[in-house]
Amino acid sequence: MIPSAFDYVRAGTVDEAVAALVAGGEDAKVLGGGQSLIPVLRLRLNNPSLIVDVSTVDEMRSIVDEGSSLLIGAAVTTDAVMKDAGVQADIPLLAITAATVADRAIRHRGTFGGSCAHADPAGDLPTVAQALDAEFVIAGPGGRRTVAAKDFFLDFFTTAVGPDEVLVAVRVPKLGAGWGVNYQKFQRTAQAWAIVGVAAAVKTEGGTITGARIALTNMGATPIRASSVEAALIGGPATIEAIKAASASAADGTKPTSDTHATADFRSHLARVHTARAVAKAAGI
Amino acid sequence: MTDTIEEAPASIGQPKRRKEDARLLMGETEWTDNIQLPGTLHMAFLRSSIAHAKILRIDTSAAKLAEGVVHVYTGEDFPGQPGSTCVWPVTADIVMTHYPAICTDEVRYGGDVVAVVLATERYLAADALDLIDVDYEPLPAVVDMEEALKEGSPLVHESAGTNRCYTHNMPCGDYEAAKAKADVVVSRRFINQRLIPSPMETRAVVAAPQGMADEITLWTSTQIPHVLRVLLALLTGIPENQIRVVAPDVGGGFGGKLQISREEVLALILAKRLGRPVKWSETRSENMVAMHHGRDQIQDIEIAATKDGKLLGMKVDLLADMGAYLQIITPGTPLLGMFMYSGIYKMEALDFTCTGVYTNKTTTDAYRGAGRPESTFAIERIMDELAAELGMEPMELRKLNWVKHEEFPFTNVAGLTYDTGNYEAATERALELFGYDELRAEQAARRAAGDPVQLGIGISTFTEMCGLAPSRTLGALNYVAGGWEHCTLRVLPTGKVELVTGTAPHGQGHATVWSQIAADVIGVPFEDIEVIYGDTGRAPYGMDTYGSRSLAVGGQAIKVAGERLVEKARIIAAHQLEVSPEDIEFNKGVYSVKGDPEKSNTIQGIAFAAFTAHNLPPGVEPTLHGEATVDPIDFSYPHGTHLAAMEVDTETGKVTLRKYVAVDDCGIQINPMIVEGQVHGGLAQGIAQAMYEGALYDNDGNLLTASMGEYLLPSSADLPSFITDRTVTPSTTHPLGTKGIGEAGAIASTPAIINGVVDAIRHLGVNDVLMPASPQNVWRAIQAAQNGGAA
Ligand SMILES: Cc1cc2nc3c(=O)[nH]c(=O)nc-3n(C[C@H](O)[C@H](O)[C@H](O)COP(=O)(O)OP(=O)(O)OC[C@H]3O[C@@H](n4cnc5c(N)ncnc54)[C@H](O)[C@@H]3O)c2cc1C
What we know:
The complex is a heterodimer of chains A (about 280) and B (about 800). Chain A contains 12 helices and 14 strands. In chain A, a hairpin with a 2-residue loop joins strand 6 and strand 7. Chain A is globular and about 60 Å long. Chain B has 3 domains: about 170 residues, Aldehyde oxidase/xanthine dehydrogenase, molybdopterin binding domain (Aldehyde Oxidoreductase, domain 4, 2-Layer Sandwich); about 190 residues, Alpha-Beta Complex (Aldehyde Oxidoreductase, domain 3), CATH 3.90.1170.50; about 325 residues, Aldehyde oxidase/xanthine dehydrogenase, molybdopterin binding domain (Aldehyde Oxidoreductase, domain 4), CATH 3.30.365.10. By secondary structure, chain B is of the alpha+beta class. Helices cover about 30% and strands about 25% of the residues of chain B. Chain B is built from 19 helices and 28 strands. The structure holds flavin-adenine dinucleotide.
C-alpha cells in the first residue's frame, strides 16, 4: 500500500529532534533506518503527521569506548554494529547476533537504536541488550535520562521512550575474559524474523559454569531473561546433560504468542531446545 | 569442390545470451506501471475486509468531496456487468455464477470489490478509500470444503442452492475389478495446499482512448493479451476491433496473469466512458488477496497392487476449492491433471472423480503446472507409501512399473499417448549424480546412531503433458477456445527480419529462442531478428503463453512460417538465376544453382528484389514473408528423475534440503541455458510449495498469510546449488523434437521433497507430513506418531 501524507524534518542534532517532536505533538514519529517504520506507514497501520529523521545526527552515529562498556549511537546501522572492530572484540554476542538480522540491504539501513525503540518481540538485537543488561540513554524536553534494559522494554512495540523523546545511544557492558557466546535463531527462511531466538553468554572455569546470561527472543511481549536457567547453570558442570536439564525451565513464566509459524506450545518447546543448544555452543561443547 | 567451407554453427542448441536482458537489467524497459499519460485518472479499489456479508449501505459522499477525487463508483453504476468470466464449463450441469465487476448486494471473499475511486493522483485515490463508509451485515463464511458440502451449510451463492460447483467422473478401465485382484491396497489423503502465485511484478493496467478512430489501448501486465482482447470485447460490448491490448515487459505471471480481471474490465469501461486514461497499479497486499490463488485440493488416493509390486489400478477422489467465483479456467484447472494420475506407470484402471466446491475465499485458477503438480504429487507420494507397505525399495517399485524405453509410443490408462521417453536413462544419470548408494548408507548409519538429524531420500520419476493443445481435444473437453499458435516472418527490404509471434512471454526469453529457430530455418543472423509479441496491434493472432505451450506449439509455427518463406524466396531466386526451382539449393541463407555455386543470391538480396518487384516470376506477389498458424497434432511429454536428500532435525522439525539432482528430458534443447533457467525457477517454486508456502485462512475466512511476513517465499539463500543434467529423447509430435520445460521443475520437485522428508522419519512412525513441511508441521507429525498412531 501507500502511506498517507506527512511532514518531514531532518534533525541536525538531538536537541533539534526533540524540539521538532515537541512541536509535532502526539502525532510525530522518529525515523531511524525506516526498515520498520516505512512498512508501518505503507500499510497505514499508523499515520503520523510528522516524521523526524534522526538518521544523520552525528552524535547518534558513533561508537565510543568507555572502558568497561561501549556507548553505541542509536543511529548506528546494524551493519556497522556487526562490522565494528570494538564490538567484535568486546561484545561479540552483539556482533554475531547483528549478522543474523534480515538481509544485507536491511542491515545497511536499519539501526541498533531503531530496533530497540521499535521493540518488536521478534527483534534480535533487543534480546542481546536484555541479556547483557544494557542501558538506554534517552533525551527529552526535560534533558537526558538513563534507563536499564529491564525497565526499557515494556510491552509489544512499547518502550520507556516517550512520544517526545529520542533514544540517543545504548550503553552495552563488556563481559571481559572467559565468556563464550552464542545466538540461536530459529527461523523458516534465511532472511526471516526469529520464530524463537536465544542469546547466551556463558563463563566456564575448570569445567564449571560460573556465569550465565540468557535471554529469549519472541517468547513474550518483550525480550525475556531466562533467569531460572541461569540460576540452574551457575555452579553446575559444563556438560550436555547438565545444560539440557537446566534448559528444561527455559520457557517457564514466558507468554509466547501463537501465529502462523508456530503455536505457543511449539515455541516453548523450541525455546527449551535452543536454550540448551545456545548454552552448549557458548560453553564450547 | 575442393574448398572446405567453414561451417557456421547452427543457432539451435547454443546457449545464446538473452536478447531481453540488457534492457531489463539496466532498467530501460517500460513496465505497465511506468506508463505515464497526461490526464490520467488513478483507480483505487475499496475491498471487502470481511469474507462474507450483505452490503446494506454504501456512503460515498465524503469520498466524492475529497481532494483530487473525480469519480466514485459502486456496483449500482454497473448493473449486471461481469468482472470476469469462465471459459471452461467442465460439465453439463456445472453451477455457473455471476462474477460482478463491483459487488452490489453481497461480498463473497475478503478482497471482493465494493467501490472504485478515480482521482488525479494515486495517493489521493488511496486516501479517499478511507472516507467510504460501508455497512455490512456479516454472513457465516464457508471456509472448509467438506463442511461446505454438508447439508445445511451456509451458501456462498444463495441462488445456486448448493456449494457444489460440479462433479466430474472419468472412469478408465474397471477399477473395482482391478482392486479385487489386488494383494495390497494403500489409501492416503494428501492435501495440496493453497498457494499465492506472487510474481515479482504485481498487476498493473492502463487504459487509454487513442484519439484515432475509436480505438482504446489497454496496457496490462498479462500472460494473455490475445485471449484477453476477445474476452474484454465479449464482456464489455466494446467492439473487438476497437480494443488493442498490449502486454509490455511482464515481470512474471506463473499462471496468476492468465486471467481476465475486474480491474482490467473496469479500466477499459471507464476509459471509454470518461474519454481519459485510467490507471491502476496493484500493491503487494492487494495482490495477495485479489489475484487468483493456485492449487487447494484434498486428494483421496487409493492404489491397488499385487504383492510383487505390480500396479493394478488407482482411484482418485478430489475436492477442489474454487473459491468464491469462477474465473477463466477455475473449474478446469484441477482437471488438467486428470489424464496424468498414472504418471509414468502402467496400470489397468484409473477411476478419477473431482468435485469443485465454492468457498468464501479468493478464486483459484492456474498456477505453475496447473493440475499436473497435483497429479504428480499424488502418484509419486503414493508410490512411496506403497513401497513402504510392500517393503520394497521405492526406486525398484518404480522400475518395475514404468513404461520401458522400447514400449513407446505408449497409451496410458487414461488414453493419452506418450510419444517418446526414456525413464531408464534419466534415472540412471540421476542416481549417478546423486550418489544414491552412499546416501542410503549414511541414512542407515544415522538411524543406527539415533542421530537427532535424520536423512531421507526423496524420489520423483515424473512425466507431464504440455503443449496445450490440439484444438480438437480442447473442444472435446468443453473448453471454449483452440490451442493453435501463429507466426509471421518477414524479411524486410534491408534484410532485417521481423518475427511476429502469438506467444506472450513474461520472462521466459522467447525473443532469444525464437530468433535461434528462425536464424536456422531461414538462414539469417540471430542478431538481425526482431521478435514482435504481446501487442494485438502488431501481433494480431495468438493464443498466448501458459501450460509450457510456447515452444511446444509456437515453435512449430515459427518453423513452418520459415519454411514457407524459404520456398517463396526459392521461386524468386530460381526466376532470377534463370533455372527452375528444383535446381536451386538453399543453404544457410544462400540460394545457389546446383552444380554452379557461383550463381547465387542471398535471402536478403531476394527480399530486396521482392520489395522492388521489378522482376518477379509470374503469379508471385511482392514482399517476402511467410505465415503459419499451426495446431499441434498432440501434446508433448517431458519427463525426468529428480532426487532430493533431506535432513530433518527431529528435535525441532526443521527440514533442510541438502542436495537436489534434477535430470530432465525435454527433447531437443533450442537454448540449454534458458532450459537451465526454467528448471531452476521451477524447482524453486515446487520446493517452495513443499517447504515454505501455504495460504492459511481462519474460520471466518480471513487470510492469515496476507503479507510476505507470513506467506514465506524462499530466496536463493534457502536453496542449495541444484545439480542438473538432461537426457535427450526427441519428441516425435514436434517438428523440432522439443518438449516443454516451463513447468517441469515445479511439477517434479514437490513430491521429491515430501518423499524425502517422510523417508527421513518413517522409522519414527510417520507416513505423511502436511505441506508446507514447516518445522511445526513436521514436529507435530513426529509427536503424533510417537504418541501412538500414524500422523
Ligand atoms: C524484511 C525485513 C526483515 C527484517 N528482519 C529482521 C530480523 O530478522 N531481525 C530483526 O531484529 N529485525 C529485522 N527487521 C527489522 C530491522 O532490523 C529494522 O531495521 C529495525 O527493527 C528498526 O530499525 P530502524 O532503524 O529501521 O527503525 P525505524 O523503522 O526507522 O523505526 C522503527 C520504530 O522505532 C522508532 N525509532 C527509531 N529510531 C528511534 C530513535 N533513535 N529514538 C526513538 N525512536 C526511534 C520509530 O519511531 C519507529 O517507531 C527486518 C525488517 C524488514 C523490513
